[in-house]
Amino acid sequence: MHVVNTTDLTKIYDNRYIALNALNLRVEKGQVFGLVGPNGAGKSTTFRLLLGLQKATAGQLQVFGEQMSADRADLRRRIGYLPTNPTFPKHMTPIAFLQFVGSVLGMPKDRTKIQLTRLLQAVDLAAAASQPVRGFSTGMLTRLGIAAALMNDPELLILDEPTSGLDPAGRKQTIELIRELSGRDRTIIIATHILTDVERVCTDVGIISAGRLIYSGPMADMRRLARQGTIAVEIEGNTTAFEQELHTLDDFGSVRYERIGSEFRITFLGTQGLNEYLHRVLQLIDRTGVELLHVDTGSDEIEEAFLRRLEDDRTRGFLRAAAWAAALEGAGSERKEEADAGIPGHPSV
Ligand code: ADP
Average pLDDT, stretch 98-120? Predict the structure, then answer.
């Protein structure tokens, strides 16, 4: 069953700003679905519409197989929602806040107490349960927000940028928590602009750009695509300086690398084409003063693949993912149906 199903969902703010442009999003029961896109792509707008907090300008929107609208509080009660950077009344303790959430949801007092105790344990806040939230770290506030979103044991959990503002340890803890929360009966949708987070926890991924879903498919397929975007360089000299600067190669959080001696295998899954990344890698080599011994694009049939990639790269940005997805289908992917469903109109490449 589709827990979320949108058809040509469109949202135009003030008759001027197009936030969603015929978005076709399908999320199935039990999936941990990563909605990935840069700031302003339309992720939060999608969530506000899914929750019935805002009205669509056009198109269809079904949640749990039913039409969502402002008056569907019954459907909303089946959804848990964590907004970006949640805030809480500073004087309140986690216990007091979750009790308040329970009362707003109309939960019986006994059930509220059992549920909040269980959740405070689960999100690792039991030790801080009776301290005022004033002074909590961003990670603790996020975990309290997740506990609040889980109070009514929702079938659908929506997390808007749950790792935003967290240090690496907090990020890892939050990802672990999300992993524990996933299960057959619960569907989770996570919005993020950080691909590595999605990669660690999601079963499926959708890429949203300028209000359109331009790729949707299983994480495993995405990983295969990611592997294709690899550049390997062998360098000597101040390799530490080079290593420290690697993360600056893409502002999308999508640079990963593996170091084997003097060789760096750098993988990209960002918004730019591979030739652009190659250019940036060479610039970084220049900037950090290391000497380049060897470079290749990490493909088996390097030359052919590289030429094809350059061709693909003419379609800049996210469209590249769609092009690769089409190539995957051509290669006989068993996921043809889903891929078809997920790439509205197959953007021409
Ligand atoms: P994301 O969550 O991916 O960062 P948003 O859904 O917040 O994206 O925003 C999508 C687009 O809609 C952006 O261009 C944003 O400026 C615009 N937008 C969002 N909310 C409003 C609003 N209330 N009024 C006007 N424009 C808005």
Answer: 94
